[in-house]
Write a structure and sequence with these properties.
Layout lengths: L11 E5 L2 H4 L12 H6 L17 H15 L3 E5 L2 H4 L9 H16 L3 E7 L5 H5 L6 H18 L5 E6 L1 H11 L10 H23 L4 E6 L3 E4 L4 H24 L6 H5 L1 H4 L8 H5 L5 E5 L3 E6 L13 H4 E4 L16 H14 L6 E5 L17 H19 L4 E7 L18 E4 L4 E4 L1 H11 L4
Bound molecules: beta-D-fucopyranose (FCB).
């Protein structure tokens, strides 16, 4: 057992999923349409024309999935709640059947001795709200707080850990400027407005969760560790822009109560000329948190890039400000992402250095890898690359703890192979294989490894 990294007593091991990626049952029990239904059903946007209509059919098979979690030995399970199951149009009547589903799931988890960790928004915005402007408009943040209050009133007594938003960077920038996520918009100002309204929605949701008296409240960010492609001043400037766009846009207001001082250099008049910020917003966004959720997968090597887009309104799109380049000498996963676990330690240590005592305890709310799994005739998968990825990243995480970062938990992404957004079902991140033709679940070697690693923590 000595090759397993060891963690401090009380450290929480978990597994994570998200509603649209696993639930299916897209038209059942009163669920309304989300922007991901619209996006995935638009020809040409998702690989193979895949959609989340059926996904892993978790909506019906959740008892089997909870049994897999129990056997794995995790202390916590992170799932997300589909807003359009609860408020089908995003505003107006609440759908009791949607609440009932999550209530059954939570009871099943508690009966298995697993603590539920609920994410309120993992990207499935009700289409009705997008039709009224989506995250570009402040009203969406207000509706988010109302939905949060409804969910917290029903589940708050049984769910100890709450995450307001998952990776708002993806919602704002992939969704409204790069167009690679729903709603597929390619805008400049719209994306910056979306980022701000997501922050406001977070602040309002924190308040709603506090009012409901829940135990722990946090947010999950996909913080990126950027490395300059060369030592040139231009590449180092590109790193500052990338850091602003990926990280500081969230961490500065949330942890420090200010907007990034590099924002003007990064966005010019798109940010200076904005009118979506209001007095009092920073106080709202800067509410104290019990933890910060960090999702980490890979470092990003950035090189300076000229504006390739003639339309200045599109200047916030990541590919107009810098280019991601390959990282030499390391393995890349099936996503093409470099595997460099030491950058995981580096990110966390830097974050602690940057924010000091303003950094709340950290939970790693996602980490894992997509690999080109080959299933044997019986469906088994010897995913040695994924096992190494997990072992090396957990070792790197332990190093961050040793360096003084207060990390309390780790959730592997993902329990199941699932709908990987624009990549459809082509990319498999699960530690359990899903045979989509039969919906059979087959634990991979990485599942067995993670199970032994968790068991090895017991004194
Ligand atoms: C993160 C998402 C998650 C999953 C992983 C691979 O950005 O939060 O839903 O797609 O990446």
């Amino acid at each position: 057992m000595s090759d397993f990294p060891r963690f401090p007593p009380g450290f929480v091991f978990g597994a994570a999923t998200a509603s649209y990626q696993i639930e299916g049952a897209a038209y059942e029990d009163g669920r309304g349409p989300s922007i991901w239904d619209t996006y995935s059903h638009t020809p040409g946007l998702v690989a193979n024309g895949d959609t989340g209509d059926v996904a892993c059919d978790h909506y019906h098979r959740y008892p089997e999935d909870v049994a897999l979690l129990k056997d794995l030995g995790v202390g916590s399970y992170r799932f997300s709640i589909a807003w359009p199951r609860i408020v089908p149009d995003g505003t107006g009547p609440v759908n009791p059947k949607g609440l009932d589903f999550y209530s059954r799931l939570v009871d099943e988890l508690l009966a298995a001795g697993i603590e539920p960790a609920a994410t309120l928004y993992h990207w499935d915005l009700p289409q009705g709200l997008e039709d009224r402007g989506g995250w570009r408009v402040r009203e969406t943040a207000e509706r988010f707080a109302e939905y949060t209050a409804v969910v917290a009133a029903r589940l708050g007594d049984r769910v100890p850990r709450w995450i307001t938003l998952n990776e708002p960077w993806c919602s704002a920038f992939l969704g409204y400027s790069v167009g690679r996520h729903a709603p597929g918009a390619r805008e400049g100002r719209g994306a910056l407005a979306a980022a701000h309204h997501l922050l406001v929605g977070h602040g309002l949701a924190v308040q709603a969760l506090r009012d409901a008296g829940v135990r722990e409240v946090g947010i999950t960010l996909n913080l990126d560790h950027h490395l300059p492609a060369t030592g040139s001043a231009a590449d180092r400037d590109a790193v500052v822009r990338a850091d602003t766009l990926h990280n500081l846009v969230w961490t500065e207001p949330i942890l420090a109560g200010r907007y990034p001082d590099t924002e003007e250099d990064t966005w010019g008049e798109l940010i200076t000329g904005q009118d979506f910020r209001r007095d009092g917003d920073l106080e709202l966004i800067h509410r104290p948190l019990d933890f910060l959720g960090v999702n980490y997968y890979r470092p990003i090597v950035v090189a300076d890039a000229p504006y390739r887009e003639s339309d200045p309104a599109r200047r916030v799109a990541t590919d107009n400000r810098y280019a991601e380049t390959a990282m030499p000498g390391v393995r890349h996963t099936a996503m093409g992402w470099p595997v460099a676990p030491e950058t995981f330690t580096g990110l966390l240590v830097d974050l602690k250095e940057q924010y000091g005592d303003a950094l709340p305890p950290v939970h790693i709310t996602e980490n894992g890898s997509a690999e080109d799994d080959e299933a044997g005739p019986d469906g088994t998968v010897h995913d040695t690359d994924r096992v190494s990825y997990l072992r090396d990243h957990l070792t790197a995480l332990r190093a961050a703890i040793d360096a003084g970062v207060d990390v309390r938990g780790y959730y592997v992404w993902s329990l199941l192979d699932n709908f990987e957004w624009a990549f459809g079902y082509d990319k498999r991140f699960g530690i359990v294989r899903v045979d989509y033709a039969t919906q059979r679940r087959i634990p991979k070697d990485s599942y067995h490894w993670y199970r032994r690693m968790i068991a090895a923590q017991r004194p």
